Amino acid sequence: METNYQKETKRPQQILKMAKLNNTYKEPEDTYEPKRRVKNQIQQLNEDSSTFNGMEYFESQQQKLPQEQKEKTPEKAESVSSILAKGSLRERFSNLHLITSIDKMLMYSKYSNLCHFFKEIDEMLLFLQSQQKPPFLNTIYELLSQNSKIKVTQQIIQQILEIYPNAYDVNWSLNEKLIQLDRSDLIIRANIKSHVQLGERLHYFKQLMFDYIQKNGEQIGLAILPQNTIQQQSQIKTQVQNVLTKQIQQQPQKHEIQSQVSKEPTYSKVSQILIEKLKQKKKLEIIQTDHLAPKKQLIALSSLIHQYYLVRDVSNMFLLNVVKYALNSLKQFMLDENQLKNFIDQLIKLCPHWIKLIDNQSGTILRMNKEIDLPSIIRSIEQM
């Protein structure tokens, strides 16, 4: 059923149709033509003026762009791993309403401890600078662990740099005192000239930490360190050496003698004596490298296990998982599963207080004591 409103709206349309059919309809005179013409002219003028003003604005913006690009500093590119390592928003900002000042922030141990680390590192850097000694991370670690009973790790340096990027100038360098394979160590420099500057830096660090927490949440991330090119070069070098030594060892001695006799031309007696001496020297070098190879492999394996447990923040792991991880990570040594298990048994005998095996129904567990530091383990391997 149609309503009265619908009927009324249809009525003028029906009258119009009937008038057109009977040829009695006439078009009304356009009384709004002058007004429409003036309106179109005004609209055209407005469009022209907006286009002109838009061009001026565009040109002025194009001139400003190079200046703004020069003034802008490059923002730090955040890696995917650092984004994934962050907790959820609820975890990061759950207790943020309680941290309303620097004093309340320092009531939490993780923030006050980091400030204490920053203070001790600054004092140690100033001391090493006065003694004209290179400020290696291993040196700072040993001195502070003896004097202040604190252990400065690479992770703490990364947290400080995350809050205060200009706190230190860090880079990788060779440390001859280390017993590692690559002897690379993080060298840390800071622009500290007097004891007065220590207090100013600490106060500034606390303020930066408070601002960082208010912006990013309670969890402090890790700054990205420069690439360790020394370690990469040493790994490539060891891989090449291992391949060469293995090729030499796999060749039978008889085959070597026959090939040398068939290929070598006739030399004088003096040259033959020199060649024999060189061969003996080469054999001694191979024997020496073979003698040192187990120590290098044990040092590499102990460093890998120590790092693997610290990164995963655990003390117990199944032995099978540790062996699989070591097989994938220590490919340069070309070890099999049985050899790795024998090396782990040697480490257990050398350092019984560091790692030990525990029987379990689901599988054998390898337990590691996190309180024992890696340098002491490496020293015991070197002294074997």
From TrEMBL:
Pfam families: CDT1, CDT1_C. This is CDT1 Geminin-binding domain-containing protein. InterPro entries: Cdt1_C (IPR032054), CDT1_Gemini-bd-like (IPR014939). Residues 1-11, 26-35 have a biased composition (Basic and acidic residues). Residues 109-227 form the CDT1 Geminin-binding domain. It comes from Paramecium sonneborni. It comes from the Eukaryota. Residues 1-36 are annotated as: Disordered.
